[in-house]
Amino acid sequence: MLQQFFGGIGKINIDPKHESSKYTIIKLNDLKNVIIPHFEKYPLLTPLASCAFAKWQANDVRLRA
Fold first, then answer.
1. Cα of 6 vs its chain's centroid, Å
2. How far is CA 2 from CA 6, 61, 64, in A?
3. Alpha-carbon separation of residue 11 from 3, 4, 31, 36, 61 (angstroms)
4. Could you give the number of structural domains in the chain?
5. pLDDT band at 38, cuts 50/70/90?
6. pLDDT averaged over the chain?
7. Measured between alpha carbons, how far is 36 from 64 in angstroms, rounded to an integer?
8. Phi, psi (5° rounding) for residue 11?
């Protein structure tokens, strides 16, 4: 459902042993053009998560190109 929400990009890996899952974006363009704009429009709700996202986005030089 999450992958469909973002237009089918990325991959979901499920780890039943640890009862967890991971959503991975492979292509940098998908990250720049889909994921980041979504979180800019709909910021994370907790101050810690929102701050971490902002710091990561500001410091990741690959996103500036």
1. 10
2. 7, 27, 26
3. 7, 10, 13, 17, 24
4. 1
5. very high
6. 87
7. 12
8. -145, 140
